[in-house]
Amino acid sequence: MHSDFNRNSSFYNNLVSFFSAIPKFDTSAVSINCIASEPSYDPKKDVDNELCLSTSNTGDGAFSDITYLILTEAKDGAPPPNEECGTKYPDDYIYSNVLTATILLYHNGTH
């Protein structure tokens, strides 16, 4: 799975898209918008847990019928503290950070 987003905060209220890492056999993609957030256990280090709703599904394959995505158990990826925004990091600066997480994909009709 690949993602085509850069962000300077959590996923919340940002549109994110995921697409297959094997496009020769899987042309599917899903775009999501995160609708709820829960603080991580270590918010100074780890990005929040996120519940995201699918806003668009395209192609044929693994992402063609995804309805929800849950990002959980994230390690690292937290944005800089608010007091550094606009000072250490100027307005409109895109803050990139690497994180690892468990991503759960919900297919409609599965339990």
Question: Shape, please?
Answer: elongated
User: How many structurally independent domains?
Assistant: 1
Discrete helix count = 0
Name the quaternary structure: single chain
With strands numbered from the N-terminus, the spatial order across the biggest sheet is: 1-2-3-4-5-6
Spell the H/E element sequence: EEEEEE
> How many DSSP-defined strands?
6
Please tell me how large the radius of gyration is.
Answer: 15 Å
**Major sheet summary line:** 6 strands, antiparallel
Low-confidence stretches: 1-13
Kindly report how far apart the N and C termini lie. 22 Å
Give helix % range.
Answer: under 10%
Mean pLDDT comes to 80
